[in-house]
Amino acid sequence: MPSIAGAGGGRLFSVNGAAAYWGSSRRRLLLLQRPLFSSYWGGTGDDVTPHLPVVIVGAGPVGLVLSFLLTKFGIKCAVLEKNVEFTRHPRAHFINNRTMEIFRKLDGLAGDIERSQPPVDLWRKFVYCTSLSGSILDFDKIISPISVAHFSQHKLVDLLLKKLDGIGFQTCLPDKGILIGASFNEAGRMQERKIHCGLLLGADGARSTVRELAGIHMKGQRDLQKLVSVHFRSKDLGKYLSRERPGMLFFIFNPGAIGVLVAHDLEHGEFVLQIPFYPPQQMFEDFSTKICEEIIVKLVGWEPSDVQVLDIKPWVMHAEVAEKYIGCDKRIILVGDAAHRFPPAGGFGMNTGVQDAHNLAWKLCLLQNGVASPSILQTYESERRPVAIFNTELSVENFKAAMSIPAALGLDPTVANSVHQVINSSLGSVIPRNLQKSVLEGLFSIGRAQVSDYILNEKNPLGSLRLARLRSILDEGKSLQLQFPAEDLGFRYELGALVAEDCAETTYEAEKQKHSKRSREYIPSAKAGSRLPHMLMRALSTSNEGVFSTLDLVNGDKPEFALIIAPMKVSYELARAMLKIADELKLPTKICVIWPQGSVDAKVKGSRSELAPWTNYVDVEEVPRAPVNSWWEMCQITSKSVILVRPDEHIAWRTESDRVTDADSEVRRVFSEVLCLTSRIQTLEKPLLLLLKSPSNASNSHPPSNTASYRT
């Protein structure tokens, strides 16, 4: 764990020569970069108002990934978290291909996850109550250098904290609470402390206080389903499932209960059970530890001897995206769940959030370093918000596909919701809640009888028909899906920090129509806005015989652009112009020359003379995999193409080198569009003032949204 430091109330606390102010208001957790804001802190007196370039609110996976990237890029930042301890209640657990690709470059985080996750054979299946298994996950590494992973969010946070500690972050946990830009009550007197920051990044989750106080609204579908999440351990159950029916997700429907069991770790017996509930007839308070244990036994079908309920939480499923990602004169930016809320079907939530952070970090760095215009921040919204809207629609579609299984068995969730609405509208004001509850549970009991052995068997005509319908859904792949390679790897930015391609067939709407046909096949693309396609490469003119991905041509330690070319004279000319202009802009850029397989050293040495006096280039050799003969062929382009790749591994621009008549002018135009220099606006002189108000002791139970405000 990262180092822990604390201090008494009302004093300045020094960390490696820098200062942070601790107060006696609500306890909070602060992740601090070492040395702490040494170039921004103006002294040690109580009247000092510090200025920070970036403050991140929320220390979940998205906030921590963002802080890691910014720190690697040399941007000073702090992460504020309202909770003293990180929750151990497992939440997100599925990490898709694209997110694992990002984690590869976070000091080996992807490797740590692969070594720490449960064995693949224990979680690659979905299991239904009929013993029919659903989708089996694909672990081939043809389209990506790394596979998907199954790793609980709270464990991911632990790993991220260790990584942050390794690059100069410190976790500070004060005895009486942290005070940064806070107004608090101490002995009947209001005390204030203010903090100025250039940018405030809201990564504080689905119920974001930052979003609420910035006045940004969510748009979409609310209250799709209310559920109770039960975190429990049972090694007995874990051993049984490992031996008899290994899987990740268990959809259980029987006459006694209905629920979805998520096996976070079969080896250690760690589970989360999701149970639908219907207030106000059913209240969260009704789900005591004893009741939850009884439901677990009903769903399992036998009684494990060691069930230990660890935590019980209610939650509501929404499908919403923020109306905008940037507010308050471009000083507040939303990332992760603060910007979008999805149904869990498909695992889009955390993955989309991590990719938000990856998109934003390099832009913040170039802005802070004076390379890009402030307008580049708007490209974060124009690129990521359409992806969130698409993922919202896809997760709702996937949720409905998951519900097709119980519907086929005679347990249509839409019927249950309709019954609940009828009771609320017609009986809610007439009969007592307890009687309403009895009516509701009686009707649900009749519904659950549809999956009894008496009805659901091949000898019963109705049961036989339903089982046939179930098999059809599974055989045709129309049930819940967890892997979406076309969407995970094939999404493309249409407008943003790139040179848009003027092709009608490449619009985002066309991409949506293509994916609406449920085609999940990933097709590599070198169009502007696409993620750089993966192929194995080998470095030339070095003693290293190892292979690596084309994605590794992009540096993960600094915001560097990469121009990919083939060894052709016109392409070398464009590359020299690129290096010259990038040097003028102080923009890290390198040239990557892709040679055909089997190229000899004598030819490869030509790059040295063609690119002199520049040395920031690399020669690599293709390692193609049948049936593809070359990287250019895989990308459906010719070797005359040149491709400019951004620090987030998305393509910023492509062209045919022999079409460029004036290399210098063309490169200047490209960088001007990508860095938004053509629409440079006057930098705001007024910093953002973050004022967090802590209420009196009498109102400490109020939610954060009632205890904070942001002013400019």
Descriptive account of the structure:
Pfam families: FAD_binding_3. This is FAD-binding domain-containing protein. One of its GO terms (biological process) is ubiquinone biosynthetic process. InterPro entries: FAD-bd (IPR002938), FAD/NAD-bd_sf (IPR036188), RIFMO-like (IPR050641). Residues 52-388 form the FAD-binding domain. The chain is α+β, with helices and mostly antiparallel strands. It folds into three domains: 52-118 and 147-219 and 320-398, 3-Layer(bba) Sandwich (FAD/NAD(P)-binding domain), CATH 3.50.50; 221-318 and 403-476, D-Amino Acid Oxidase, subunit A, domain 2 (D-Amino Acid Oxidase, Chain A, domain 2); 530-675, Glutaredoxin, CATH 3.40.30.120. The strands form five sheets. Strands 1, 4, 5, 6, 11, 12, 13, 14, 20, 21, 30 and 31 form a twelve-stranded mixed sheet that branches. The two termini are 36 Å apart.
